[in-house]
Amino acid sequence: MFYLILIAIWELAYKIGVDWLRLWKPYIFPSPIAVFTTLWSLIIDGTMSIAVFASAKRIFLGYMLSIIIGIFVGLAIVRFKYLDENVSPLILGLQTLPSICWLPFSILWYGLNESAIIFVITIGSTFAVSIAIESGMKNINPLFVRAAKTMGAKGFNLYWNVIIPASLPSIISGLKQGWSFAWRALMAGEMISATKGLGQVLMVGRDLADISQVMAIMIVIVILGVAVDKLIFGRMEINIRQKWGLDKA
Amino acid sequence: MSVVVENISKSFITKNDTINTLSNINVEFHKGEFVCILGPSGCGKSTLLNIIAGLEKETSGRVICNGKEVKGAGPDRVVMFQEPALFPWLKVIDNVEFGMKLAGISKDERREKAMKYLKMVHLTRFQNCYIHELSGGMRQRVALARSLTLDSDILLMDEPFAALDSQTKNILQLELQQIWLETKKNIIFVTHNVEEAVLLADRVIVMSANPGAIKKEFHIQLARPRQPDNIDLAYLAADIMKELKEEVEKVAKAEFDTNWTSKKDLVLPDSDSDMGTGI
């Protein structure tokens, strides 16, 4: 309902601004109707499915890589104090660097191809994941560790049976954050150096001065991003919160 | 099969000076004995327990458990804490099985044993619940069942009932007494509640504060099972309370403002919030 009102306001703004007052040109301000017809035609002629599929493949690879690397880096930092003291500030610093800044680097390394984009995605979200793992494991209730130790948990067992499950809630929110970084990095990478994918279709729209195509793709990007966030991470979070009894009261 | 504490001292170094929490503690705990360590807050009784458990390192001295020197925490000395310390990501039954799983006991065997101990604490009905669905007393009972499953001869308890309401506490004390009679473990039980100590223990060790040291030992030779309203218990409790009161006042003097004196400001023997319950 709220969104219907929002679209109505948008249409109204279009009518006033473009049709009546002629303040804006039609190619800088899209109408909702044009956006939806473009969206429909993109879906019908298959451009959309090709683009979504290409983007999904990249983000899947890039994100998986970043989770694997992030977990290793995070665990290493938790395990070794030397790394913690020296590498943590570096990671925090790299985390503030927007992932698009890595693009020139990756193009020089890999050329204008898939690997370059996957590299950007991976580097964009690895640090978020490793920071989340590190802080999640450091902030668990120390009583869990003490209790487990008196029951004979040591080394790998202690990590696998206690520390990792105890830090799962914060690890999941870290993965979620990593996902949003990865998604942004993907779009940035695709806009600059891809031959297919959502970001590339968006750029084609810009090149053809087709504002409604730009808008349509933006909407798809938002919807997909939110859908993954809610359906995958949202479910995991709800599941854990219920188990732990965090939703009470 | 016993725990021997030899010359244990523990000091913390702060910015300004060194604080001696424990000084030269020598004590022996025998097989199958129920010992309560009683003392005012801050006398280092929990620290002593943690050292026996291997969770804290002593500054000097050593603890010998069954002929071997204690080097770290281990399943031969299970600890029950004031908080239940159950894992919220596991069901009740999995929590109880946790230690056995680490010990590599087969699935059928550990299920059977977990059920036996859950039965002992009367919680079989809740085996598939998650921890947040249980009340405080139930959680502590699960923790008790969990610590019993490892068949350690020694069970260390750090004020396990202190956070519970007094009715629940009474029930659990009697249950613990019953379980001890059945299993005959060597229980070392830290508390600041005199009545609790007298009800449960064969031997009560009163500790003094600043620095923590053993002040006096009492042997409680009353028939079991004991009931909290037993008149002999009250008599013994009064005896021990006299000893403890001095220490409580000493701690109070150190912590309160200098204008506080025990003569002017009346110190009730039950100045600790939990004392006096269970009578």
From TrEMBL, chain A:
One of its GO terms (biological process) is transmembrane transport. The chain crosses the membrane at residues 33-54, 60-78, 90-110, 116-137, 158-175, 211-233. The keyword Mitochondrion does not apply. It is a multi-pass membrane protein. GO terms for cellular component: plasma membrane. It comes from the Bacteria. InterPro entries: MetI-like, MetI-like_sf. It holds the Pfam family BPD_transp_1. PROSITE patterns: ABC_TM1. Keywords: Cell membrane, Membrane, Transmembrane, Transmembrane helix, Transport. It is found in: Cell membrane. Residues 52-232 form the ABC transmembrane type-1 domain. Gene3D superfamilies: MetI-like (1.10.3720.10). Belongs to the binding-protein-dependent transport system permease family. This is ABC-type transporter, integral membrane subunit. It comes from Pelosinus fermentans JBW45.
UniProtKB/TrEMBL annotation, chain B:
Pfam families: ABC_tran. GO terms for molecular function: ATP binding; ATP hydrolysis activity. This is Taurine-transporting ATPase. The keyword Ribonucleoprotein does not apply. Keywords: ATP-binding, Hydrolase, Nucleotide-binding, Transport. Gene3D superfamilies: P-loop containing nucleotide triphosphate hydrolases. It is an enzyme of class 3 (hydrolase). The keyword Hydrolase applies. SMART domains: AAA. Its EC number is 3.6.3.36. Residues 3-234 form the ABC transporter domain. It comes from Pelosinus fermentans JBW45.
